[in-house]
């Protein structure tokens, strides 16, 4: 539903904060989804640590053939106290102090998982230090087993809990934040597009409050109701929101943002600021306060150095090992192609790579030999709005080729390009050399080697518009990291299994 609704009211005098004293009770936050969610995580973590202790003790008993589990705890009572009471409580305390239950990190991003891993390192260090201080004969193998099993089980439990949360957010709206966007209409609509792009993020804009009046916005259709001249806090109560997002230039007005923060004190409403920095990942942004002015410092993308060298070495090693491992599969696919349509097994096409250098991409042929000649007669049926020609039911693709495309098996020969250093396992998709001049923003994709998979492939593939595909590729270039590559490779497995956007 689209809205064209505007309201104007006199604003009351601004607040300079709520009166409070040392014994005053803080108002509860309006968004409280994280409380039951955190309780579930605590239960999962406790079960995980108890399970890890049980696994380690069972393995130790089996190995030693004795009625002992840790090698330094004499007597079953002391063992059960340490393994099933002291250690689980210690884990929970360290997980809590490490911020793994902080609502800012729950439900999205990798920071929650990073903190769990750091906690496991702290547990190992604490146990080792305790053993050294008490001169205890510590079974290092058992401690390693407990720590490894615990962190794996905890991470699996949190992945499962997060998936359930994402399903609830997508289908029911539970576990989400209802937001009022404050700013000019273009800025608010830009933030609206960004936060609604991923329903799993749990951010639902329910209203827009204009800071520059509504005269210029009259007659413009908007996805949510638009208001102007209203008291923001009363508007939040009226629309049932729990978060105010200050967009773009509205956050730059001297003193206004600070007074808004004062006004929200004690109300339980969250305040977030959405600056005009789009598609820049968190690790590249740092806040540096100078004399009370919080400056956002944006680091340059890291496209060289040790991490980039490791990426190149991992690509070559994985490609060599992968080609050796799947060579029987490649042979079977080659035979299937020859039986389906006489002609070459591989399709070679010139693509643009790193720094604009061209190369021949390797793919299994999935179309009839006269596909290029027939393309001219199908141009008007092109379903893509960008450089590539795409049709969901392309008559040039033979039956076996359609199966290869649906399962992405036609992309496997590109491991040859990776081995030669022309491509990477993860990167922007390689585009044909004759389909564009790569001017403007698109040319920035050439700062890195193209990849077999990438952010575009795991976000919708052919179902995405050209502008969205370019945006995702540029986001990858600007925010690349080894961790991000591993995350994309992991997501690729599920995308291939779902066959989403593959045609």
Outline the structure in words.
- It is globular, with a radius of gyration of 28 Å.
- 44% of the residues lie in helices and 12% in strands.
- It has three domains: 138 residues, no CATH class; 100 residues, NAD(P)-binding Rossmann-like Domain (Rossmann fold), CATH 3.40.50; 193 residues, no CATH class.
- The chain has 503 residues and is of the alpha/beta class.
- The protein contains 14 helices and twelve strands.
- The strands form four sheets. It has a five-stranded parallel sheet, sandwiched between helices. A three-stranded antiparallel sheet has the order 9-8-11. A two-stranded antiparallel sheet has the order 6-7.
- Helix 7 links the parallel strand 4 and strand 5.
- It starts with 33 loop residues before the first helix and ends in a 5-residue tail after the last helix.
- Helix 1 runs antiparallel to helix 2 and helix 3 runs antiparallel to helix 4.
- 27% of the residues are buried.
Write the topology of this structure:
Blueprint: H1 34-64, H2 76-97, H3 111-133, H4 140-171, E1 177-183, H5 185-196, E2 203-210, E3 226-228, H6 232-239, E4 243-247, H7 256-264, E5 270-274, E6 285-290, E7 293-298, H8 306-325, H9 327-340, E8 346-352, E9 358-364, H10 371-375, H11 399-407, H12 414-419, E10 424-426, E11 431-432, E12 451-453, H13 466-478, H14 482-498
Parallel strand pairs: 1-2, 1-4, 2-3, 4-5, 10-12
Antiparallel strand pairs: 6-7, 8-9, 8-11
Helix pairs in contact: 1-2, 1-4, 2-3, 3-4, 9-11
């Amino acid at each position: 539903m689209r809205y064209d609704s505007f309201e104007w009211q006199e604003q009351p005098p601004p607040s300079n904060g709520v009166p409070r004293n040392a014994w005053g009770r803080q108002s509860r936050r309006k968004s409280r989804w994280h409380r039951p969610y955190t309780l579930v995580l605590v239960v999962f973590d406790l079960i995980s640590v108890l399970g890890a202790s049980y696994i380690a003790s069972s393995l130790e008993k089996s190995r030693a053939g004795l009625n002992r589990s840790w090698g330094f705890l004499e007597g079953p009572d002391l063992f059960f106290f340490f393994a099933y009471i002291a250690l689980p409580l210690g884990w929970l305390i360290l997980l809590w102090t490490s911020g793994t239950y902080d609502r800012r990190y729950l439900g999205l991003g990798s920071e929650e998982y990073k903190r769990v891993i750091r906690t496991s390192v702290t547990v190992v260090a604490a146990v080792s230090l305790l053993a050294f201080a008490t001169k205890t004969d510590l079974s290092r193998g058992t401690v390693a087993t407990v720590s490894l099993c615990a962190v794996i089980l905890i991470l699996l439990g949190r992945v499962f809990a997060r998936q359930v949360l994402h399903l609830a957010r997508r289908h029911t709206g539970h576990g989400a934040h209802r937001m009022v966007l404050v700013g000019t209409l273009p800025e608010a609509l830009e933030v609206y597009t960004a936060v609604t792009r991923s329903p799993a993020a749990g951010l639902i804009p329910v209203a827009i409050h204009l800071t520059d009046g509504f005269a210029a916005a009259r007659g413009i259709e908007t996805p949510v109701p638009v208001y102007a001249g209203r008291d923001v806090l009363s508007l939040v109560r009226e629309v049932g929101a729990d978060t105010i997002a200050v967009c773009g230039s509205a956050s730059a007005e001297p003193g206004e943002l600070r007074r808004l923060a004062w006004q929200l004190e004690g109300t339980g409403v969250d305040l977030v600021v959405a600056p005009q920095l789009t598609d820049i990942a968190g690790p590249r942004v740092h806040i540096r306060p100078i004399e009370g002015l919080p400056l956002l410092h944006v680091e340059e993308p890291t496209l060289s150095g040790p991490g980039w060298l490791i990426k190149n070495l991992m690509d070559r090693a994985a490609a060599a090992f992968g080609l050796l491992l799947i060579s029987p599969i490649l042979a079977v696919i080659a035979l299937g192609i020859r039986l389906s349509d006489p002609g070459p097994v591989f399709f070679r096409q010139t693509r643009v790579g790193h720094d604009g250098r061209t190369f021949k991409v390797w793919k299994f042929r999935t179309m009839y030999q006269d596909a290029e000649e027939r393309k001219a007669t199908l141009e008007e049926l092109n379903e893509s709005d960008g450089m590539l020609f795409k049709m969901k039911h392309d008559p040039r693709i033979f039956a076996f080729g359609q199966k290869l495309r649906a399962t992405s098996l036609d992309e496997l020969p590109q491991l040859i390009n990776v081995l030669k250093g022309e491509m990477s396992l993860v990167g922007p998709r390689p585009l044909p050399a004759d389909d564009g001049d790569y001017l403007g923003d698109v040319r920035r994709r050439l700062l890195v080697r193209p990849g077999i998979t990438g952010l575009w492939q795991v976000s919708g593939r052919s179902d995405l518009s050209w502008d969205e595909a370019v945006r995702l590729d540029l986001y990858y270039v600007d925010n690349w990291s080894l961790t991000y590559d591993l995350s994309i490779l992991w997501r690729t497995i599920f995308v291939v299994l779902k066959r989403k956007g593959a045609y």
